[in-house]
Design a protein that fits this description.
Bound molecules: flavin-adenine dinucleotide
Distance between the termini: 30 Å
Oligomer: single chain
Strand content: under 5%
Order of helices and strands: HEEHEEHHHHH
Number of helices: 7
Helix content: 40-55%
Shape: globular
Radius of gyration: 21 Å
């Protein structure tokens, strides 16, 4: 189970710190349903981990001589939309393609940086302003954070698709972007 809490002040960024029940249990303490006792599940969890919702400003250079950054070392992003590892995989694929296509390591690393740095900068910035779960945020606004049973009464399928497509374009997952690769590679 995953709980996201927005605080009113920044806390220390530490990805290895255990979470504390008292920091968030009050939100879920009444979530006891006859079909699922969520509060009990949380209280009896063997492990609680805390993961800071943070990123870093995009940087201008990933290549230093024969060393190149990739993955989280290159573009740590606000963790929304299941995208950190996905972008790291695209980095790896791009780097492999560049090493294959260029005669020198320097040229390959330069081409890799040219291809991936601007692309991931857009993702890092989009994750701050227009994250992929903007769909959830928008629907929550439209329904007034109340239960609902007919999504179509609040938002059209076209608007939902547009919100989703906008992020796919930025992240390089749109059908057009994948088809444009045209080499059959995933
Ligand atoms: C809770 C959580 C959920 C996530 N969910 C998703 C998701 O659903 N989808 C998604 O795409 N992404 C997700 N991410 C993000 C994703 O995990 C990261 O973006 C991804 O792991 C980055 O991969 P990486 O190889 O760049 O870095 P890491 O996975 O951090 O790998 C770096 C490695 O280097 C090792 N290392 C560090 N220092 C040294 C050293 N000095 N010497 C030797 N080794 C060293 C570390 O131990 C580590 O194994 C999630 C992250 C978290 C924390």
């Amino acid at each position: 189970m995953f709980a996201e809490i927005e605080g009113d002040r920044p806390t220390r960024n530490d990805w290895n710190r255990p979470g504390r029940l008292e920091d968030f249990f009050h939100i879920y303490q009444d979530w006891r349903f006859d079909w699922f006792d969520i509060a009990d599940m949380i209280e009896t969890a063997e492990t609680i981990l805390e993961y800071p919702m943070v990123d870093r400003d995009p940087v201008e250079c990933w290549v230093f001589d024969r060393v190149a950054l990739m993955g989280d070392a290159a573009h740590p992003m606000y963790p929304r939309g299941s995208n950190g590892a996905a972008q790291a995989v695209i980095d790896a694929r791009t780097l492999a393609d560049c090493l294959d296509a260029h005669d020198t390591v320097a040229a390959a690393l330069g081409a890799y940086q040219d291809a991936r740095l601007p692309a991931t900068t857009k993702v890092v910035l989009a994750n701050r302003a227009n994250p992929p779960d903007i769909i959830n945020i928008r629907v929550e606004e439209l329904v007034g954070d109340k239960p609902f049973d007919d999504l179509d009464a609040y938002i059209s399928q076209d608007e939902l698709r547009a919100l989703s497509d906008q992020y796919k374009d930025i992240a390089g997952f749109s059908a057009e972007a994948l088809q444009a690769r045209g080499d059959g590679k995933p």
